[in-house]
Amino acid sequence: MATSTKATAPVPDWITKEFFVDVITTKLARPVSEFEITDLNVKPATESGDNYASVLYRVQVTVEVQGSPVVVPLIVKALPNLGITNDLIQSMNLFPRETDMYGQVLPALEKLYAERGRVITFGPRCLKLCSKPTTALVLEDLRERDFRMANRRQGLDMDHSRMLLRRLAQFHAASAVYCEQNGPYDDKFQEAMFAEKGRAMHEQFQKLQSDFMYMIFSNWSDKGKYFAEIMVG
């Protein structure tokens, strides 16, 4: 079957059936000889204005296993290609922290609970990390486990707030035990997003933002230029 793409934005050419072969091997715990990827359905996983520092795709991989079709839902996160904004994101070291967190830290924290007979998860299972053909990670789609994204403008109700705080406390406890057993976390986790080494890049980005806002304010109303001058002053 041909690959079908129902995205409103272009789908990168590296999202192919071949890209997901090792993902499906891990997800289904089957060798390549026992399945065949027959179709991909790819669409954006976020809406315009969601302000993520990655490009996210929701992918449904149709796999034929022993003559029967199986649909495997996945999330693909990749670095964007946005010129200076891309340089800014890289200077923040966001993606390396994220890949290490999903690929190493969270599984290690979950293992601490598993060793004590408790099943605790802190995020989606990471099925693939790669730097070629692009820097990306592939995660299970939590919709498969009936999770839904809360409306960020409405917030959470009391039951979900308590659930969240309980899991956050479990995360903090496990992270402290892991540090005691294995020593300090990698240096990339010790540095905040806005580090001194990225000052020049942040200032350059901020100037672009300020110039843009100045232009918008200046044409906003009769007094727009006045407010624009206050903003930059």
SSE layout and pairing:
Elements: E1 4-5, H1 21-28, E2 35-44, E3 55-65, E4 68-78, H2 84-91, H3 94-114, E5 126-130, E6 136-140, H4 158-182, H5 199-218, H6 224-232
Parallel strand pairs: 1-2
Antiparallel strand pairs: 2-3, 3-4, 4-6, 5-6
Written description of the protein model:
This protein is α+β, with helices and mostly antiparallel strands. It folds into two domains: 17-192, Phosphorylase Kinase, domain 1 (2-Layer Sandwich); 193-232. It is 39% helix and 19% strand. It has six helices and six strands. The protein has helices at 21-28, 84-91, 94-114, 158-182, 199-218, 224-232; strands at residues 4-5, 35-44, 55-65, 68-78, 126-130, 136-140. Strands 1-2-3-4-6-5 form a six-stranded mixed beta sheet, sandwiched between helices. A hairpin with a 5-residue loop joins strand 5 (126-130) and strand 6 (136-140). Helix 5 runs antiparallel to helix 6. The longest helix has 25 residues, at 158-182. The protein is globular and about 70 Å long. Mean pLDDT is 84; it is low at 1-8. Residues 137-233 form the CHK kinase-like domain. InterPro entries: CHK_kinase-like, EcKL, Kinase-like_dom_sf. It holds the Pfam family EcKL.
Key traits:
single chain; 233 residues; alpha+beta; Phosphorylase Kinase, domain 1; six-stranded mixed β-sheet; 39% helix; EcKL; Kinase-like_dom_sf; CHK_kinase-like; CHKov1
Helix content: 25-40%
CATH class of the largest domain: Alpha Beta
Run of helices and strands:
EHEEEHHEEHHH
**Separation, N- and C-terminal Cα atoms:** 61 Å
What would you call the shape? Answer: globular
- Given as residue ranges, the uncertain stretches (5+ residues, pLDDT < 50) are 1-8
Give the total of beta strands.
6
CATH superfamily of the largest domain: Phosphorylase Kinase, domain 1
**Residue-averaged pLDDT:** 84
Category from helices, strands and their pairing: alpha+beta
Q: How many separate domains?
A: 2
